[in-house]
């Protein structure tokens, strides 16, 4: 039984979850329906010099919104399912409305054909994506439109950026908790992301791979410090004698009230881009805080954050710190006498 478990952990394949498939199928069917109804329904025409949307346009708009929502889901992270719903709904409306009301009716049939083909292509693309993990390394496979793969052997892993948090929010039913778990492996000139939202993986699968990559990621970071004198891990710069920390918070993460998800959807109209840009400029302008290694009392994890205790608590989102999940081990290695153990003279 032990050998079977070891073998299962040594080799596994994770396929895409069905949410993108469903949206792609809806888009394809909407496009096909638009084409058929274009010939069965009344022809598009103009009334009182105003364009009246045709049935094909309405179907094409709905299908285009589904395609955009399926694509956008790949980039939404850190929100609950409720938050993702609001964001995708409002942005899908932004895509659909111009097709329905701004596109001339005579182009409705062409738009419906494009949407049907686009939905089919998206379905084949999503269906052909998978991540394969073996004793050799981690590999991302793609079958459409062209077969391709990229691989990171375990001994070439440079960092593992993790986001293993639980999002707690309060709704009409009381306290609700959702998990958002992912790990991004970097090395060999590329990166591969495995997460529980887009792939049929669970948190235990991620823990197994994080543990497997640990010795290689730590060794790569220590080699960089030995050769260059420092290693940049997001907002943290590791040196032999101290840390330089930027963009940290002095307070822990708070629970997210439900109105924040609605606000996030409303602000999708572009305002959130300006807001995040302004916050980024202010944070980048701040000088890093130097923390000598002998002043660090503890390094731990709390609510998806790396917490460094050095007279005060400094909270850094774990998802922004490559190898942050290995920070206690890195800190212990840095405190040892040089040369670093296991790296040779």
Walk me through the structure.
This protein is α+β, with helices and mostly antiparallel strands and 345 residues long. 43% of the residues lie in helices and 26% in strands. It has nine helices and 16 strands. Strand 15 (305-309) and strand 16 form a beta hairpin. Helix 2 runs antiparallel to helix 5 (108-127). The chain starts with a helix and ends in a 10-residue tail after the last helix. Residues 1-8, 46-50 and 337-345 have low confidence and may be disordered.
Indicate the topology:
Blueprint: H1 2-10, E1 12-15, H2 19-40, E2 46-47, E3 50-51, H3 55-72, H4 81-101, H5 108-127, E4 129-133, E5 137-142, E6 148-153, E7 157-171, E8 174-187, E9 190-195, H6 203-228, E10 230-233, E11 236-239, E12 242-245, H7 258-266, H8 271-285, E13 289-292, E14 298-302, E15 305-309, E16 313-317, H9 327-335
Antiparallel strand pairs: 1-4, 2-3, 4-5, 5-6, 7-8, 8-9, 10-11, 11-12, 12-13, 14-15, 15-16
Helix pairs in contact: 2-3, 2-5, 3-4, 3-5, 4-7
Keywords:
alpha+beta; 4-stranded antiparallel sheet; 345 residues
Percent of residues in helices? 40-55%
The SSE order reads HEHEEHHHEEEEEEHEEEHHEEEEH
Q: List segments where confidence is low: pLDDT < 50 over at least 5 consecutive residues.
A: 1-8, 46-50, 337-345
Gap between N and C termini? 42 Å
Q: What spatial form do the alpha-carbon principal axes imply?
A: elongated
- Structural class category: alpha+beta
Using DSSP, what is the number of strands? 16
Compute the average pLDDT.
Answer: 81
- Write out the strand line-up for the largest beta sheet, numbering strands in chain order: 1-4-5-6
Strand content: 25-35%
> What would you report as the Rg, rounded to the nearest angstrom?
25 Å
The total count of helices amounts to 9
């Amino acid at each position: 039984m032990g050998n079977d478990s070891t073998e299962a952990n040594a080799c596994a394949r994770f396929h895409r979850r069905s949410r993108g498939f469903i949206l792609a199928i809806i888009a394809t069917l909407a496009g096909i329906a638009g084409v058929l109804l274009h010939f069965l329904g009344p022809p598009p025409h103009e009334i009182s010099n105003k364009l009246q949307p045709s049935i094909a346009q309405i179907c094409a708009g709905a299908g285009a919104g589904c395609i955009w929502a399926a694509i956008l889901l790949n980039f939404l992270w850190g929100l609950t399912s409720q938050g993702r719903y609001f964001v995708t709904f409002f942005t899908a409306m932004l895509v659909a409305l111009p097709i329905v009301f701004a596109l001339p009716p005579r182009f409705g049939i062409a738009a419906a054909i494009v949407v049907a083909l686009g939905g089919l292509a998206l379905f084949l693309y999503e269906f052909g994506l998978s991540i394969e993990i073996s004793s050799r390394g981690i590999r991302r496979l793609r079958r459409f439109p062209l077969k391709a793969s990229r691989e990171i052997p375990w001994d070439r892993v440079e960092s593992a950026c993790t986001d293993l948090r639980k999002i707690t929010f309060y709704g009409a039913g009381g306290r609700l908790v959702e998990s958002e778990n992912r790990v991004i492996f970097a090395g060999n000139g590329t990166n591969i992301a495995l997460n529980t939202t887009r792939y049929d993986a669970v948190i235990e699968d991620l823990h197994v791979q994080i543990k497997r990559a640990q010795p290689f990621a730590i060794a790569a970071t220590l080699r960089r410090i030995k050769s260059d004198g420092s290693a940049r891990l997001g907002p943290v710069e590791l040196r032999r004698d101290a840390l330089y920390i930027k963009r940290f918070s002095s307070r822990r993460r708070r629970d997210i009230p439900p109105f924040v998800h609605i606000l996030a959807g409303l602000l999708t109209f572009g305002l959130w881009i300006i807001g995040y840009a302004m916050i980024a400029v202010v944070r980048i302008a701040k000088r890093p805080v130097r923390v000598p290694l002998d002043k660090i009392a503890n390094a731990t994890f709390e609510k998806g954050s790396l917490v460094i205790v050095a007279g005060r608590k400094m909270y850094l989102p774990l998802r922004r710190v490559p190898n942050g999940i290995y920070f206690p081990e890195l800190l212990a290695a840095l405190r040892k006498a040089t040369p670093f153990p296991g790296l040779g003279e």
